[in-house]
Amino acid sequence: MKKQLLAMAVMAGAASITQADIIGASAGAQYWKQSWDGDVQSGSQAVDVNRDLGYDDDNGTSIYVALEHPVPVLPNIRLQRTDIEISEKNQLSRSFTFDGDVYAIADTVDSTTDLTHTDATFYYELLDNWVNLDLGLTVRMFDGEVRLASSTSEGSIELDDPVPMLYANARFNLPLTGLYAQAVGNVISVNDNSITDLSVGIGYEVAVVSLEAGYRSFDVSLEDDDEEAGITVDGIYLGINIDI
Q1: What are residue 123's phi and psi, to 5 degrees?
Q2: Is 1 helix (H, G, I), strand (E, B) or coil?
């Protein structure tokens, strides 16, 4: 009897240690159909990305990995890379000044707007049942620019500053079906600068793999002296996730 009790105690202790040491990991990728709108400015005149630069639709991708651990005090971590870049060639129907240079009517302008960024998110899991809720802080690191070039002029705005943002991720599981709805957001608003990045989607999960479809809207409004950018990139996305 004593041997049985000892064996049960050892098994219970091993189970508790195993449970305490559980580390969860997830990863995913998205294909994003992007529609561009807005304007950029370096000087006294705003440049419309649709009318002046010829922007319309483009495609982008986003990938992420996340790691969750059982230590209550330390936050979980999620790393995400999002590709938001468009390049076009367009003949101007008006003149404007950008970064000190004049772009004249009928000039052909090559332009690139790059809002690509990497997110490092530190979050806590507040709910973990049929409703999952994560809250935390994201540090978004841009490594992009807005660049215009014609046969006689060239100018650019650098977008390479880290930006702290509030992070929230809510998922609602429909029991016994594998279906779920999810909303993910990163937001910040300080003075005349704001960034709002929201995704909503529905998915279907089988075992550790889920397929997801939804809508993502990325809105950035930045101002630094006479340099400004007010751009919205939005559209539907398709994604796949693995959760182990």
Answers
A1: -140, 165
A2: coil
